[in-house]
Write a structure and sequence with these properties.
- By secondary structure, the protein is an alpha+beta fold.
- The chain has three domains: about 5-130, Helix Hairpins (Orthogonal Bundle); about 140-235, Sandwich (HSP40/DNAj peptide-binding domain); about 240-330, Sandwich (HSP40/DNAj peptide-binding domain), CATH 2.60.260.
- Helix content is about 40%, strand content about 25%.
- The protein has helices spanning about 5-10, 15-30, 35, 40-55, 60-80, 85-90, 95, 100-110, 115-135, 150-155, 255-260, 320-335, and strands at about 140-150, 155-165, 175, 180, 190-200, 210-215, 230-235, 240-245, 245-255, 265-270, 270-280, 285-290, 295, 300, 305-310.
- The termini are far apart.
- Mean pLDDT is about 80; it is low at about 80-110.
- Bound molecules: zinc ion.
- Zinc ion (ZN) binds near residues 170, 185 and 189.
Amino acid sequence: MTKDYYKILEISEFSTQEEIKSAYRRLARKWHPDVAGNTDDVISMFKSINEAYEILSDKSRKTDYDKARKFYNYARSNNTKNMNTESKTTNPNSKRENPEPEVNNKKRGFSFNWEEFLSRKHAQNELNKEKKNAPQKGADIHTNVEISVFEAINGTTKVINMLQTQLCPKCAGRKFINGQTCHHCNGKGEVSNYKKFSVKIPAGIKNNSKIRLSGEGEKGINGGASGDMYLTVIIIEPKNYKTEGLNILKTVQITPYDAVLGCDIKLATLQGNVSLKIAPNTRNGQKIRLNGCGIESASGTGDMIVTAEIQIPEQISAEEAALYRQLKELNANKSK
Ligand SMILES: [Zn+2]
C-alpha cells in the first residue's frame, strides 16, 4: 500500500516548509513510542512520520516524490473507471463473481512503484553528489600581454594583474554555513581576487607566441589540480616607424628644394635626437642609413634606415609659381 506522506503528516500538498516542519514536530511528539506506547503500530507510525518528514523536507526528494505521487494518483484515477472498489478486488469471493483477476492485473500494470522509483532516484542523486564531490581540474585562463618591439627583441619581465575567481574557501561554494549566508563570499559561493604575476618574456619572442603558466589558472574543485594560464604575447608595432629585425625603418618627407639643395632634419631615435643630413640632389625614395640608431640587443645594435620622400606642395602662392616658372625657364635655357 502506497504511503501518502501528506496524509501521514496531516497536511496538504501545498504546505510550506514551515508547516511541514511544525506538523512533523507535533506528530513526532504525539507518536513517540515513549509517549504513545512501545507497540508495533506506534513504532510503524513513528517511522512513517520520520520517513515523510525526511522526504518532504528535502527539496529535491520532495520534488521527486510529488511527481511520483501525481503520476500514481493519475494512474489510480484512470483505473477506478475500470474497476469497482479496491476492497472488492482484494476480496477473494469477488473473484468468482467478476473477472476481477484481469482487472487486478490491469491495475498492477498501472500501478507505479514510486517507493522503488524514489529509492532509485535517491541513489542516483547520491551518485551525482559523489560526482560533484569528485576532484575537478580548474579552468584555464587565457589573456593577452602587450610588449614593445624593443621588449620582444631583448626580452622583458611583465607584471600582470589577473582577476582570479575560485570557489569560496570558507563555504566551499555552498553559499551557506550552518544555514547562515557565508560572510566570506556574501553568499556568492565564489570569491574573486587580483593576483599579480611576474612573467618573464624571453628575448626574440615572436608575435602571438603563447606562454603557459602552469597551475596559475582557476583553482581546482574538491582538491583537483588548478588550471593553467595562457598568455598570448602581442608585439605592438610603433606607429611612426617599422622594424625589420634590429633595424628601424623610417620615412621622412622633404620638399623639392630640400631634395635639391640638401638639408638637416632633426630625427628622434631610440638613442636620442640626431641630426640627419640630407645631401644635395637627394632622389625620391633614396635611403639613408644611420648606423647604430636601431634596436639595441645583446647581439648588437641595428641601424635606422631613413627613406626620403619628396613631397610636392599641394598649393603654392602666385609668388612661388613665378619662382618655379623662373626655374623652368632657366632649365630650358641651360639645355639650349
Ligand atoms: Zn562562501
